[in-house]
Amino acid sequence: MVRTEQAGGPDAPLKGLAPVIDVTTRVLVLGSFPGVRSLQLQQYYGHPQNHFWRILGTLWNEPLLQLDYADRCQSALAHGLGIWDVYAHCEREGSLDSAIRNAVVNDFAALQRHCPQLEAIVHNGGESWRHHRHTQALGLPVYKLPSTSPANASWSFERKLQAWREVLQAHGVA
Fold first, then answer.
1. Does 50 qualify as catalytic in the annotation?
2. What's the pLDDT score for residue 95?
3. Set 50, 102, 106, 124: catalytic member
4. Which of 29, 59, 66, 71 has the greatest number of beta carbons closer than 10 A?
5. How far is CA 117 from CA 21, 23, 112, 149, in A?
């Protein structure tokens, strides 16, 4: 099993990343769980072929791909966009969502206390969407968008961009 070094030793379940949120977060993007490269880097959407940061950079007319990760996150927060994952931890070989086993869902009930301006949830891809019943319980609009992952090769960048643009513009973050 491919794992990153974590506090529980090499046989411990993989632990997800901390959320990128603050009190001004209006829209929260939920992936499923970081891929191997993202875990190694400790960065959301760290795989260079993932379209997430490219989509946001295009929508915001900002050179996000040229910025370091901390600055990318600050830009997201400045636009009212938060980033997190559905799963807090899991077991997985490789990076594919289909390989996720024994996953534990994050605590979404506590989310609104940390993000009082939260107005919408965006699920980045199908695996994340499988848990939309958890996010719908928050009483907010919930959207399923095409995965920005390189594994979603059936959607072109332009097609993904258009789908993301529609939802993010509707909530004033694009």
1. yes
2. 85
3. 50
4. 29
5. 11, 7, 8, 28
